[in-house]
Amino acid sequence: MGWTNIAIDVLLFCFVVTSVLMCLVVLMQRSKQEGLGAAFGGGFTESVWGAQTSQVLVKATVWLAALFFIFSISLARLYSHRAAMMEKGSPMQQELMKPVAPATSTTPAAAPTPAATPTPVAPTAPAAK
């Protein structure tokens, strides 16, 4: 169960980073009305990444979206695997939860005989002097 928690932590970190990057790339894309792309100074993205900025941002969006879905599905599988493992318990817990069978002997037990049972003794009165 330890490897599951480590994998979840690593994938969750990558998932958050991918989500933030995808948000930034989508916001930087130039829309038909110039939208938020104009907030960066209009030609800011062209001066940084060149004239073909829209193609670079579209490719980055596609790759980040693919990573987003891969991380989402992987995290869902790992979380369900961890829940199943917690429900089933560790191997030590499974061993402790097994029912204990009563101990049986290989020789049959002898039935008590009537002579072996003690007979009740009546109380006697003290002797008179």
Secondary structure: number of strands: 0
Let me know the largest β-sheet.
none
- What characteristic shape results from the CA principal axes? rod-shaped
List the total number of helices. Answer: 4
**Beta-strand percent range:** under 5%
The overall pLDDT, averaged over residues, is 77
Query: H/E series, N to C?
Result: HHHH
Query: Into which percent range does the helicity of residues fall?
Result: 55-70%
* Radius of gyration over C-alpha positions, nearest whole angstrom: 39 Å
Q: From the helix content, strand content and strand pairing, which structural class follows?
A: mainly alpha
Distance between the termini: 87 Å
Low-pLDDT parts are none
Polypeptide structure, described:
This protein has 129 residues and is an all-alpha fold. It has a domain at 2-91. Helices cover 59% and strands 0% of the residues. Helix 1 (2-28) packs antiparallel against helix 3. It is rod-shaped and about 135 Å long. The chain starts with a helix and ends in a 32-residue tail after the last helix.
Main traits of this protein?
129 residues, 4 helices, mainly alpha
Q: In a nutshell, what does this entry contain?
A:
This protein has 129 residues and is an all-alpha fold. The protein contains 4 helices and no strands.
Secondary-structure blueprint:
Layout: H1 2-28, H2 44-49, H3 53-88, H4 91-97
